[in-house]
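Trying the structure run again after the queue cleared.
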Amino acid sequence: MTSMSLSVEAVETAEFAGKTALVTGAARGIGKETVALLHARGAHVVALDLRPELASLAQEFPGVVTVTGDVTVEETASRAVESAVDAFGGLDILVNNAGRTLNKPVTHTTAEDWDSVMDVNARGAFFFAREAFRALAERGGGAIVSTGSYASAVGLPEGVAYSASKGALAQVTKVLALEGGPLGIRANLVAAGVVETDFLDTFRLDSRAYLASFGNLHPLGRVARPREIAEVLCFLVSPRSSFVTGAVLAADGGFTAA
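Done. Tokens:
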């Protein structure tokens, strides 16, 4: 191993040393991979989710603080941020990863469907961004990154509520960047392509075939792995992206390049 590779590894290991991060939707998939990367690179991590798998994170990643809560409940955001401040003295990073999808034609999408998707993907993300904004400002700045979707840039058949929610999240991100700049707060969004997680199993019986069909539509010939999206999320909250804010960064295997 060369001295250069050793120095790069050392930087990555200490990249988030002394920083505190809050990750929503942390129990599995992209969220869990993000917790793993932040933890391995020196961050204090507060992990939030509703799923029972959340409890295992504290054992798997020693020092991680877990908070159980529903992102659509306003109090959950303030409680999670308070947990970070109480446990680690402040907050430097928010990863807005919790999300929900829905696969229905427009004519079959009910008001309840619309509200449930918007509540998680847009309303919940707003709650956490607002509460984090206050804590980050007290810290002298920081970074917010949200897990978005290629569906904010292109139409997604049978995805009217999901596409609208991710489009809203992209706009929220831009406003956060504008208002956060003078406070030293950066805000960005990763417009992810289709990702191979069990998340799809919750709304499609044919999720494996669905994944394969989308993989064929990506110029890279496959869908993403959770770790690949987590790496981009971590880049956007790291010092390496210190002049990047207000960006909607595509990590979609070239899906939206055409």
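Helices lie at 3-14, 29-40, 57-60, 74-88, 111-139, 160-180, 207-215, 226-236. Worth checking whether this holds up in the mutant runs.
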